[in-house]
Amino acid sequence: MKVKNLVTLTSIYILKKEKLVKTQSNKTHLKMLILKVNLTLRIFLFNGKEKICCIGSKMIEGGELMEKRFNDVQIECVTGDIANQTDISAVVNAANAVLKSGGGVAGALHRAAGPELAEAGKPIAPIQPGQAVITQAFALPNDYVIHCLGPVYGVDKPESSLLRQCCQHAIRLAEENKIRNIAFPSISTGAFGYPMEEAAEIAVDEVVKQTKHLRFALFSEKDEEIF
After folding, report:
1. Last residue of a domain, one of 81, 108, 135
2. CA pair distance 114, 206, nearest whole angstrom
3. Which residues fall within 8 angstroms of residue 127, CB to CB, at 6 or more apart?
4. What is the pLDDT of residues 71-99, one digit of tens each?
5. If we measure between CA atoms, which residue out of 139, 2, 164, 210 comes closest to residue 148?
6. Where is the Macro domain (predicted)?
7. Cβ atoms of 183 and 90 closer than 8 Å
8. What are phi and psi of 207, to 5 degrees?
9. Which of 62, 115, 142, 145 could lock 80 by a disulfide, CB 3.0 to 4.6 Å apart?
C-alpha cells in the first residue's frame, strides 16, 4: 500500500464546501485540513503534474459524492456516516482504552456493529495511547475495525508523537491484513480535546506517506471550517 516517489506539494489546499482553495505556499508535504461537519474523504495518490479539476458528482448510497483531482490526488467527498461506508474494507475507530462504546465515532461504530464488537475487544483491552488493534467488523458493512487510542490533549505526552503513532500503527495493521482501503475519523479532536488544526495536519501528513487509498471521515459538533 505504500506510495513510491510521492510528489510533494508547495501549497496547502483546504476543501471549503465544494471548492478547493489554495491558501499557503512553501510547504513540502501534502497537508489537507478537511474541516466541514460530517465530511467524508477518500484520497487516491498518483504520479504526475499539479492540477485542479472537478470531475463531477454522482449519487451513492448515503449521499452525494463529489470527485475532484489536484496535484495527482483524487478526492471523493461524501457527506455521510463513517458507520455506513459500504465500499471500504476497514474503518478506524477513535476508541477508548477499554474498547467499549462511547460517544462520537466509537458510539456510532459500536451501535452499527452490534454487541459483538465490544465482546471482541475484551481480550485485547486495555490499550495505551498511540496503540492500535484490529477486530472483525461484525454487522458493519466492512471487513475490519481498527481501534486507535489517541492522546488526551494536555495529559498524554508528547501528544503529537502519540497521534502520529496512531496513524502509523493503523496503517501497519491494514498492510498486515492486506486491507485495500481504509476510512479514518478525526482522532482525539472530540472529548480528548486535541485542536482540530493540529490533529488534521498530523493525521494527513502521516497517512499520505504510507497509503494509496484512504478516506477521512471527520465529524465535528460545529458547522464551521477552521480557516
Report:
1. 81
2. 31
3. 95, 97, 99, 133, 147, 149
4. 444 445 455 678 888 888 899 999 999 99
5. 164
6. 62-227
7. yes
8. -70, -30
9. 62
